[in-house]
Design goal:
The chain is mainly α and 113 residues long. It has one domain: Chorismate Mutase Domain, subunit A, CATH 1.20.59.
Length: 113
């Protein structure tokens, strides 16, 4: 691996430490925002499952998932993010939503909702 000339990166240690600290603080804020958005997304499962019950639609909607994954693939290219990793993240998010919907259905069937 080629050695990086550290002098070209920052003017001094103080500058590098400040950048490191502020970047980490910004990442912490972004992480909190991501978690809040995941929570909000998961809470929408109640609305979705109730609508699916009323409309007599299965929890798994192949067409909807195709739309989601097509959108994710497009955004991955636009944002220059590894598509496979982004799809893995979406797999986790859709699983979380489906699991939440299944739990709501189970509670509703058992009268505990």
């Amino acid at each position: 691996m080629k050695k990086i000339n550290k002098k070209k990166l920052f003017n001094n240690d103080h500058e590098a430490k400040n950048i490191l600290k502020s970047s980490r603080e910004e990442i912490d804020k972004i992480d909190s925002e991501i978690i809040n958005l995941i929570s909000k997304r998961t809470l929408l499962a109640k609305n979705i499952v109730n609508a699916k019950i009323f409309l007599d639609i299965d929890i798994y909607d192949k067409n909807r998932e195709k739309v989601i994954y097509d959108k994710v693939s497009k955004l991955a290219i636009e944002k220059n993010i590894d598509k496979n990793i982004l799809i893995q993240i979406m797999n986790l998010l859709t699983k979380l939503s489906k699991d939440q919907q299944k739990e709501i259905l189970k509670r509703e069937k058992n009268g505990k909702y």
